[in-house]
Specification:
Number of strands: 14
Number of helices: 12
Distance between the termini: 17 Å
Strand content: 15-25%
Radius of gyration: 19 Å
Number of domains: 2
Shape: globular
Order of helices and strands: HEHEHEHEHEHEEHEHEHHEEHEEEH
Low-confidence stretches: none
Helix content: 25-40%
Length: 345
């Protein structure tokens, strides 16, 4: 038995406890299938999607792999007095669409899991949720999720918590034992995978490493900058808020927009230069070209016709070990080989 095999592998029906993050539209069928075909667990990015978009993307993924895979759904904070009944119904329909398609797991993030766990359990679908604190993990465990993903402060994109992964991980494991806990944030190579497993994690969930893959639906200039950058090129800020306001700070590559905003004293939303203007266009889920606003919280996909120096280039602190662009299956194999070697040593 491989030293990487953990009970999470049996839970998800996979060979290796390596998940790829569902980073929006860029985590599409090709990437997910490549990760799952290599023995990991690919996760489709479906944040903000309705069931009418989720169902065909799941069907396309099934054409590319017979292996289990998951779907990521972003949840609003249903305890926020500003949320509406329509918001909750939209999310219920989205989760139901994924569940009825019998995916391997629904991976939730941001809001409370409880309203959606029963929807999945009734169909035999597993639920995982990414959390940023021990308290959130305990709440998720009480709600009945099958596993939690502890997201460390080092993560790219929107960052839920404020604690480094190597502190958050063992504390979360202790708090929700025997529930499986995965590590996410700041991990991009086999050594990081091994360290997480040594601390008691049952798996890992990696984003930045898989953004730099052939199959990721990401603008090639974004990939190029990602592998050339180092940790000093990554910034933690509250800049890209259009479309997802007031949620949390995020981590991305330094670019012209950040530099201009930084020189201006990092003004808050409502006082930033160029607000309401467009930086270019992209295709929406319906295939129609739409404007992309400055400060928009989006993934830079290949169909973007924008100056990407004014778009978010999400990246985590694992960037120092992300040095090349290669097929996702090779990334999984490399992670497994190097992690096994580290664990053996």
């Amino acid at each position: 038995m491989t030293p990487l095999r953990t009970p999470l592998c049996d839970l998800l029906g996979v060979e290796y406890p390596i998940l790829s993050v569902g980073f929006g539209r860029s985590a599409g069928p090709e990437l997910v299938a490549a990760v799952s075909n290599a023995g990991g667990f690919g996760v489709l990015g479906a944040g903000g999607w309705g069931a009418e978009f989720i169902t065909p993307v799941i069907a396309r993924t099934r054409e590319l792999t017979p292996q289990p895979f998951g779907v990521n759904v972003l949840l609003p904070d249903l305890e926020d007095p500003n949320h509406s009944v329509e918001d909750e119904q939209f999310l219920r329909e989205a989760v139901s669409g994924a569940v009825q398609a019998n995916v391997g797991a629904v991976v939730l993030f941001w809001g409370p899991a409880k309203p959606f766990v029963a929807l999945a359990r009734d169909q035999g679908v597993k639920t995982l949720i990414q959390v940023g604190s021990v308290h959130e993990a305990e709440t998720a465990a009480e709600a009945g999720v099958d596993a939690v993903i502890a997201q460390g402060f080092e993560a790219g994109g929107h960052v839920r918590g404020t604690t480094p992964i190597w502190e958050l991980l063992p504390a979360t494991i202790d708090a929700v034992r025997p529930l499986p806990v995965l590590a996410s944030g700041g991990i991009g190579d086999g050594a990081g995978v091994a360290r997480a497993l040594d601390l008691g994690a049952q798996g890992v969930s990696l984003g930045t490493r898989f953004v730099a893959s052939d199959e990721a639906f990401v603008h090639p200039e974004f990939k190029r900058r990602l592998v050339e950058a180092r940790s000093h090129d990554v910034v933690y800020a509250d800049l890209y808020t259009v479309g997802w306001p007031g949620v949390a700070p995020h981590r991305s590559l330094r670019n012209k927009l950040f530099e201009e905003w930084d020189r201006a004293g990092r003004p808050p939303e409502g006082g930033r230069a160029g607000e309401g203007t467009s930086i270019g266009t992209r295709l929406n889920l319906s295939g129609e070209r739409e404007e992309v606003a400055r400060y928009a919280s989006v993934m830079v996909t290949p169909d973007f016709e924008v100056d990407i120096d004014y778009a978010p280039l999400w990246a985590g602190e694992s960037i120092d070990v992300v040095n090349d662009i290669k097929p996702a299956g090779e990334i999984v194999a490399e992670l497994v080989r190097d992690a096994e070697a580290a664990l053996a040593g």
